[in-house]
Amino acid sequence: MRTRLENMTIREAVIRPVQCSRSILALLENGARGFAFASGMAAISTVAKLLQTGDEILADSDLYGGTCRLFSKVLDRTGITARYVDACDVEHFEQRITPNTACLSRVSNKPIAPRD
Fold it and tell me: How confident is the model at residue 5 (pLDDT cuts 50, 70, 90)?
């Protein structure tokens, strides 16, 4: 009896390309590993699970509503806080980083304006 993952067609068509794309992401970002997610919320939720009580997220003030709800209604109960700053002002955003800042979030629906 064979499982779906032992099926050569599934392995060749799905699993290997995903593994290759993750390896390419790691190379592009100079990272040890790359990860691929089906959605932005899946990625954010996964990263959030790495945070600990007392950590803070420095986030763009124009985030997707679902992300704001995750930060304010779910993570807030675990002692993880989020602060919101306009990420278009990069210098101001960088100045807001504190020793408790464990994560930066710049996921937005607005287009990134070109900077001079």
Answer: low
Residue with tokens 């995903």: 18
Q: Kindly report the pTM of this predicted structure.
A: 0.67
Residue appearing with tokens 């509503």: 65
Chain mean position to CA 56: 14
Using alpha carbons only, what angle is made at residue 86 by residues 40 and 58, rounded to the nearest 5 degrees? 60
65-82 pLDDT per residue, tens: 888 899 999 999 999 999
Domain residue spans of the chain: 1-36, 40-105
Which whole-number Å values give the CA distances from 87 to 42, 90, 103, in the listed order? 22, 6, 14
Region of residue 32 (phi > 0: left; psi between -120 and 50: alpha; otherwise: beta): alpha
